[in-house]
Design goal:
GO molecular function, one term: NADH dehydrogenase (quinone) (non-electrogenic) activity
Pfam families: Proton_antipo_M
Order of helices and strands: HHHEEHHHHHHHHHHHHHHHHHH
Main location: membrane
Number of strands: 2
Helix content: over 70%
Distance between the termini: 25 Å
Subunit structure: NDH-1 is composed of 14 different subunits. Subunits NuoA, H, J, K, L, M, N constitute the membrane sector of the complex.
Strand order of the largest sheet: 1-2
Largest sheet: 2 strands, antiparallel
Shape: globular
Number of helices: 21
Subcellular location: Cell membrane; Endomembrane system; Membrane
Radius of gyration: 22 Å
């Protein structure tokens, strides 16, 4: 018998699944080339789900359902709320682009996006190895199909094949690591795995062997070096609308999955996985920033930027435990700074790709940095939004990217460990190097002569959402306290359960 708590834990997922199926059926009768009915139904569904998740998160309650396979807590509900809003914004930006490229011949863009979001939800709320893996596969399979949505585009199909092959290898790594830990602990339940490891009765070598494969699988999903090889090719090859779908909200799900596995389940092995995360963070910051400097393609540059930004998230995740000691204040500071960082990164990414999608027109992709030349003369508003995003990613005050970096660096320095302080110094140096390629984009927009006199136009909904998106990057930088407190409270409630 299924109790009410079990149903309560997955109401949003059930609603999302039902509506994805309903929208797919309704779309069969839609003949409009812009799929207006499908689009509106999708946005309404996402709006209801976002509100529902926000209500759940505001309540702050934690409960488990379906035999402890899923958990509903403040951290998960807020991340699901933000992921839903991110997908809403993405679809608003993507619709004109997709319509111009005949990607709306059917409603696949909308239904596959909903199924990908459902996979993210399962990843975020999974409290069992099988649930986490199920959510991951649902999200990635939908993502593979989205990348190949332009079936007549050779570059997109090639990117989808690379994504599929490398994604399958990474999923194999993760599944193999989970199976090793299951074999050692005798359980797939994350809570029971934690208790079994904490008992000290399991051979450490077996656990570390499985841990290596788990961390490798997580690193691939986050795009961390040396498991980053798919990211630049997929970002560049996928249709820009799909690039934003796979580069935005999924980062929130990857962060949540990392917390569920490494913190909720494998915290007694923190000394081991912290060393692995440190290596991944150093490689991501170094390779991401240096490789981005030589890029002329904007999407490829943003891919390497993502790699470097994930390096900062990893720094926040590794600074929560000091010498095997779990201090509640240190844990809260570290993991909340990482959560704040990934949320603000997604916010900035949405606005960045929103401008790129806005500048693209039928037969022209606007993928090269040189395509932004003289944008300020053509549209001061959109050039301003792009400049705000570039300054934020570079970590220049008073934008939200500066405070996000500062929060992570503070968590490293507050540990008092020489290694962590050295990592903070290294991160600052890499950020200074990274500022070059961000400021180059600003220079091109404001100081280069425009290559075309074509005016920039966009539908009202796109202009409104993009303006609000850009303003939030500035406002949250000036007043970061509210979101930071929300992240801290969510982390405390999630770990206390």
């Amino acid at each position: 018998m299924i109790d009410n708590i079990s149903w309560l834990a997955i109401y949003p997922e059930i609603l999302l699944l039902v509506m994805a199926c309903v929208i797919a059926l309704v779309d069969l009768g839609v003949h409009s080339p812009r799929r207006t009915v499908t689009y509106v139904l999708t946005l309404l569904t996402l709006a209801v789900v976002a509100v529902l998740q926000g209500v759940y998160a505001s309540g702050g309650q934690t409960f488990y359902g379906w035999g402890n396979m899923v958990v509903s807590d403040a951290m998960g509900n807020w991340l699901k709320c933000f992921a839903t809003v991110a997908l809403m914004v993405t679809l608003v930006y993507a619709r004109p682009y997709a319509a111009d490229r005949d990607m709306l011949r059917g409603g696949e863009l909308f239904t596959l996006s909903l199924f990908a979001l459902l996979g993210m939800f399962i990843m975020i709320s999974g409290n069992n190895f099988l649930m986490l893996y199920l959510g991951l596969e649902l999200m990635t399979l939908a993502s593979y199909a989205l990348v190949a949505l332009r079936r007549d585009n050779e570059v997109a199909v090639e990117a989808a094949m690379k994504y599929f092959v490398l994604g399958a290898i990474a999923s194999g790594f993760l599944l193999y690591g989970m199976s090793m830990i299951y074999g050692a602990t005798g359980s797939l339940d994350i809570g029971q795995v934690f208790r079994a490891i904490n008992s000290g009765e399991i051979r450490h070598q077996v656990l570390v062997f499985g841990l290596v494969f788990v961390v490798a699988g997580l690193a691939f999903k986050m795009g961390a070096v040396p498991f980053h090889m798919w990211l630049p090719d997929v970002y560049q090859g996928a249709p820009t609308a799909v690039t934003l779908i796979i580069g935005g909200a999924p980062q929130l799900a990857a962060f949540a999955m990392t917390i569920r596995l490494l913190v909720d389940g494998l915290l007694p092995l923190a000394i081991d996985w912290q060393q692995m995360l440190a290596v991944l963070a150093i490689g991501s910051l170094l390779i991401g920033n240096l490789a981005a400097i030589g890029q002329s393609n904007l999407k490829r540059m943003l891919a390497y930027s993502t790699i470097s930004q994930m390096g900062f998230v990893l720094l926040g995740l590794l600074s929560g435990v000091v010498n095997g000691n779990v201090d509640p204040a240190t844990v809260e500071n570290a993991y909340s700074s990482a959560m704040f960082y990934v949320i603000t990164y997604v916010l900035t990414t949405l606005a960045t790709f929103g401008v790129v999608l806005l500048l693209a027109r039928e037969g022209f992709e606007s993928e090269e940095i040189s395509d932004l030349a003289g944008l300020n003369q053509r549209s001061p508003l959109y050039a301003g939004v792009m400049a705000i995003c570039m300054f934020s990613m570079a970590g220049i005050p008073p934008l939200v990217g500066f405070y996000a970096k500062l929060a992570v660096l503070q968590s490293l320095v507050a540990s008092g460990q020489t290694l962590y302080i050295a990592l903070a110094v290294f991160a600052v140096i890499m950020s200074l190097i990274g500022a070059y390629y961000y400021l180059r984009v600003v220079k091109v927009m404001y100081f280069d002569a425009p290559i075309t006199a074509t005016s920039v136009s966009a539908p009202l909904d796109v202009r409104a959402v993009l303006s609000v998106n850009g303003a939030l990057v500035l406002v949250l930088g000036l007043f970061p306290g509210g979101l930071m407190s929300l992240c801290a409270d969510a982390i405390v409630r999630a770990l206390a359960s």
